[in-house]
Amino acid sequence: MAQKADQPVSAPIEEPAWKQRAVERSTQAAKRRAEQRVDRFLDAAQAIMAEKGTTDFTVQEVVDRSRQSLRSFYQHFGGKHELLLALFEDAMSKSAEELRAAAAHQTNPLDRLRIVVQELFENSRPAPSGAQRPLFTDFALRLLVSHPAEMRVANAPLLALFTDLMTELEDASLLRSGFEARRAAALTMRTVMFNAQSSGQDGPHPLTADEVWDFCAKGFTLS
């Protein structure tokens, strides 16, 4: 039977506020537990890498070190590659924050970019025996080929930093004419990281951070 035109339509009944609060509290608690489990897996993987000096480990080793279950691992990660992607993304984010803080101590925009270029170069070089590099570059190169989309996401904080610094150069009329800040940022960041990652192949006279900065600066700054 058709509803009369003047008959009021029933408003949807909302859940009581107390029930909404209870559900939200339960969801937040579950999220915190999941985050804690993920952190334990990441911490375990980092500890294993520190001991071995390589990313050559198994999922079972991570599970055993974290004292959690294999089932729990696969609830959070699709496999070892996702775990390493998470570690790499976290390392890139932290590195970008540290580099931004280091650059903030400089007043000249060119000096800010110099600090970032030189420190990124040092952080991205292959680790000497017994040392730890934050970006564990042996895996980064494989990721670039096998998971390019995920690498773009992981590199986003660092690219944003370089873009901000290039924009400062542009605003100060120090960026070479014809360069767009973001493209110059991407070119510079990739140049620094690639040369750092291949610096172990330079024999007894490897590239230095000063040389890399000098090369990059002559490319994007005014002559």
What is shown here, in short?
The chain is mostly helical and 223 residues long. The chain contains 9 helices and no strands.
Folded structure, characterized:
- By secondary structure, this protein is mainly α.
- Helices cover 69% and strands 0% of the residues.
- The protein contains 9 helices and no strands.
- Helix 7 packs across helix 8 and helix 8 runs antiparallel to helix 9.
- The protein is globular.
- The protein starts with 16 loop residues before the first helix and ends with a helix.
- The relative contact order is 0.09.
Q: Work out the number of β strands.
A: 0
- Strand and helix order: HHHHHHHHH
> Could you describe the largest sheet, including whether it forms a barrel?
none
Distance N terminus to C terminus?
83 Å
What's the shape?
globular
Task: Compute the number of helices.
Answer: 9
Instruction: Specify Rg, calculated over alpha carbons.
Output: 24 Å
Q: What would the average pLDDT be, to the nearest integer?
A: 84
**Uncertain regions spanning at least 5 consecutive residues:** none
Structural class: mainly alpha
Strand content: under 5%
State the helical fraction. Answer: 55-70%
Give the helices and strands, then pairings:
Blueprint: H1 17-52, H2 59-66, H3 70-76, H4 80-103, H5 109-124, H6 137-146, H7 148-171, H8 181-197, H9 209-220
Helix pairs in contact: 1-2, 1-4, 4-5, 4-7, 5-7, 5-8, 5-9, 7-8, 8-9
Features:
globular, mainly alpha
